[in-house]
Design goal:
The protein is globular. A hairpin with a 5-residue loop joins strand 19 and strand 20. The chain is of the alpha+beta class. 28% of the residues lie in helices and 23% in strands. The protein has three domains: 172 residues, Aldehyde oxidase/xanthine dehydrogenase, molybdopterin binding domain (Aldehyde Oxidoreductase, domain 4, 2-Layer Sandwich), CATH 3.30.365.10; 193 residues, Alpha-Beta Complex (Aldehyde Oxidoreductase, domain 3), CATH 3.90.1170; 326 residues, Aldehyde oxidase/xanthine dehydrogenase, molybdopterin binding domain (Aldehyde Oxidoreductase, domain 4, 2-Layer Sandwich), CATH 3.30.365. It has a seven-stranded mixed beta sheet with strand order 3-5-1-12-9-10-11, with helices on both faces. A five-stranded mixed beta sheet has the order 7-15-14-13-8. Helix 14 packs parallel to helix 15, helix 15 packs across helix 16 and helix 17 crosses helix 18.
Length: 785
């Protein structure tokens, strides 16, 4: 372990203890937003445009108002005065980024199929939904554009007429003598990839419930959000309500994957209706409604070029992206492609780096963060291109990777960031211990020689990711609208228990367990003596919430430092009580020992609370807070392998094995880490083989439910084989990195490389995701021609 890593792994940190959260989930005692109801509640039904692009001529809510149970109904024009500002976009990456107005209800035009144009409030959910269907909207359909390349063509329909273009922004980065390196290269590789559009599909649909106290103008907003603190701040701006009058609570939240890292029209609508009616308001999306109203992910066209020597050593990388923004900018829409902007050279040591991204408006559901957010896209492009380079120079893909790895750390990469720690070759070596590559190649060749129509293939993905979304100074330089810090408070209560307040907001990650482990390890309490409070801005008023694999690397480290402050104050009190100098006190997990006696932390917490005999100037109570702003991102890495069987007669792909070796720094709870990797792998495999949101040319979403949008179950997935190596991060005292997105980052490239490996002898080396049976069959048919 690095000398700069201060924590000594003990009996709690690193132990696979059972999750504290699971009892209430398994016994049906969790509190979900949709469970909430108080007398007088009204329910919202949202009227959505069936057209991807249409002028709104007239909205008549009278038929809805005549429906039984309806309390009120409004068009976008009716509610226009409610909005003090537009729905927020916190990341405008260039000075000239075009950010169109985005009100919760459209007034002049609908810009995607699903755009909200009216809202109905009724005394039951059924009445609200039925009445919403009665609202009469006259539309003037307009030509739509759904493809980002088509959107930039001359004469393309404009999503926002006032902008005069569909280009949202252009962001570029140049480092090194890229043109010279390409001109001198013995080998160049040029590849084009499509990042399929994805629908997040969290287990719990989005929902919001607003309670109001009209006499004081105070509101409590219960939301299925990942970002209660950000939601509170931004809703204040959208509706002009003082932030101090808003309380946001994220109760138990059933997954998010980035889709609940947003401020949505329905949250603003519910608050506006509560203000108008002075009554509680609730809205819960239906699953099919979510396909049209919750953000989508990915949707990029990638062009990547590699310059290399004759032996396959990469000297330069050049990347051009077209990224669909959808119709509007959600909270961080334009910044999502740029989260991978500096990572298109992957884990490889290159001299030159060129990157350009054009963000483009289209008549589609807005895109935003989806698990990995920019990093899966970067990993996919470089890992697929490295395999293409291996074919070009006639070498094995493993050999090419080994030749190009970054080997010395800390490493400042060509794009300008510094990777703090890693050992990429060791990860690959460990992976190959699990995958007997020579034996596999023998089986693969035997099948080919026998004429077996079922081909075998193996694919690799050796990734590095930048996560944690900090430090604040770098976010500021990137024109991001918030900081990357987070906060923690520890209260040692006089009754012998501990209360932890965190600024992170979990929705399945296991913070209550992992945070308790950090505190128990440092302060000597038992896990069941530690309560972790989160997700309520009245309880935890400061925080930057949960996304981007930041919680442990930022919020967990804040907690460690808060625990250190507890120890230091308690040390001073212990020395005073024992009548010795502080230097004579030895502390070991909850006990302070002097030459002639000792005191426990629990005893000192009681003493600090009674305050009967404290050192001069010491405040009563044993409580400490810490706000932590990391000095660097965290840098997980890994080596993954997928083994597939491809039926060349039907195009069917079966994933036989998946092996993942990851380095996520020091592991607090291996069971939780395994769960995070499993979930990410499932979503990464799903992108490669199953999932794709497809629009027709008119902007209709053809995959608008689970009958047409394929979400794999456990039955479609193999038993994932996991292993780990640890290179602790030297930039934080816990030595931790991130883990929540690793699987989703690595898996798409590994699976697609495996399919290309299986079909290379048949002439198929390139295929768009998802590799559906039809797509594979058609590629084989075309190759045979």
């Amino acid at each position: 372990m690095s000398a700069q890593t201060e924590v000594a792994l003990g009996r709690i940190i690193g132990a696979p203890v059972q999750r504290k959260e699971d009892g209430k989930l398994l016994q049906g005692q969790a509190l979900w937003v949709d469970d909430m109801h108080v007398p007088g509640t009204v329910y919202l039904g949202v009227v959505r445009s069936p057209y991807a692009h249409a002028r709104i001529v007239e909205v008549d809510v009278a038929p809805a108002l005549a429906h039984a149970g309806v309390v009120a109904a409004w068009s976008g024009a009716d509610l226009a005065e409610e909005w003090a500002g537009s729905l927020p976009c916190a990341w405008l990456p260039t000075e000239d980024t075009r950010a169109p107005e985005h009100k919760p209800l459209a007034v002049d035009k609908a810009r995607y199929a699903g755009d909200a144009v009216a809202v109905v409030a009724a005394t039951s959910r059924a009445a609200a939904e039925d009445a919403a269907e009665l609202v009469e909207v006259e539309y003037e359909p307009l030509p739509a554009v759904v493809d980002p390349e088509a959107a930039l063509a001359d004469g393309a329909p404009l999503v926002h007429d006032e902008l005069g273009t569909n280009r949202c922004y252009t962001w570029s980065l140049e480092a090194g003598e890229v043109d010279r390196l390409f001109a001198e290269a013995a080998v160049t590789v040029s590849q084009r990839y499509r990042q399929n559009r994805l629908v997040p599909n969290a287990m719990e649909p989005r929902a919001v419930f607003v309670q109001t106290v009209p006499a004081t103008g105070e509101y409590t907003i219960w939301s299925t959000t990942q970002v209660p603190h950000i939601l509170r701040l931004t809703l204040s701006g959208v509706l002009g309500i003082p932030e101090a009058k808003l309380r946001v609570v994220a109760p138990d939240v059933g997954g998010g994957f980035g889709s609940k890292l947003d401020v949505y029209a329905e949250e603003a609508l519910a608050l506006a209706v509560a203000r108008r009616l002075g009554r509680p308001v609730r809205w819960t999306e239906t699953r099919s409604e979510g396909y049209l109203s919750t953000i989508h992910g990915r949707d990029q066209i990638q062009e990547i070029e590699l310059a290399a020597t004759a032996e396959g050593r990469i000297t330069a990388v050049r990347v051009r992206l077209l990224a669909s923004m959808g119709a509007y900018l959600q909270l961080v829409t334009p910044g999502i492609p740029l989260l991978g902007a500096r990572l298109y050279a992957g884990a490889y040591d290159v001299q030159g780096y060129s990157f350009r991204c054009d963000g483009v408006f289209t008549n589609t559901v807005p895109t935003d963060a989806y698990r990995g957010a920019g990093r899966p896209e970067a990993t996919y492009a470089i890992e697929r291109a490295v395999d293409a380079l291996a074919r070009a120079v006639g070498k094995d893909p493993v050999e090419i990777r080994r030749l190009n790895f970054i080997r010395e750390f800390p490493a400042t990469i060509a794009s300008g960031l510094t990777i703090d720690s890693g050992d990429y070759e060791a990860l690959l070596d460990r992976l190959l211990e699990h995958v007997d590559l020579p034996a596999f190649r023998g089986r693969q060749e035997a099948r080919r020689e026998a004429g077996d129509p079922k081909r075998l293939g193996i694919g690799f993905s050796t990734y590095v990711e930048m996560c944690g979304l900090a430090p604040s100074r770098i976010l500021g330089a990137s024109r991001y609208g918030a900081g990357g810090w987070d906060t923690a408070t520890i209260r040692c209560l006089p009754t012998g228990t501990v209360q932890v307040v965190t600024g992170t907001s979990p929705h399945g990650q296991g913070h209550e367990t992992a945070w308790a482990q950090i505190v128990a390890d440092r302060l000597g309490y038992e896990l069941d003596e530690i309560e972790v409070l989160h997700g309520d801005t009245a309880v935890a008023p400061l925080g930057m919430d949960t996304y981007g694999s930041r919680s442990l690397a930022v919020g967990g480290v804040a907690l460690y430092y808060a625990a250190e402050r507890i120890v230091e104050k308690a040390r001073t009190l212990a020395a005073y009580r024992l009548g010795v100098d502080e230097s004579e006190i030895e502390y070991v997990r909850g006990r302070f020992a002097g030459p002639d006696g000792s005191l426990t932390l629990k005893e000192l917490a009681l003493s600090a609370w009674t305050a009967h005999d404290l050192p001069e100037g010491m405040e009563p109570g044993l409580e400490a807070s810490y706000v932590y702003d990391p000095p660097n991102f965290s840098w997980p890495a890994g080596a993954h392998a997928a083994i597939v069987e491809v039926d060349t007669e039907t195009g069917a792909v079966e994933l036989e094995r998946y092996v993942a070796v990851d380095d996520v720094g020091v592991v607090v709870n291996p069971t939780i880490v395994d769960g995070q990797v499993h979930g990410g792998l499932a979503q990464g495999v799903a992108q490669a083989l199953y999932e794709e949101a497809v629009y027709d040319d008119a902007g209709n979403l053809l995959t608008a439910n689970m009958a047409t949008y394929l979400v794999p179950s456990a039955a479609e997935l193999p038993r994932f084989e996991l292993d780990r190596l640890e290179t602790p991060s030297p930039t934080n005292p816990l030595g931790v990195k991130g883990v929540g997105e690793t699987g989703a980052i690595a898996a798409p490239a590994a699976v697609m490389n495996a399919i290309a490996d299986a079909l290379a002898a048949d002439g198929v080396t390139d295929l768009d995701m998802p590799a559906t049976p039809e797509r594979v069959w058609r590629a084989l048919r075309e190759a045979r021609r």
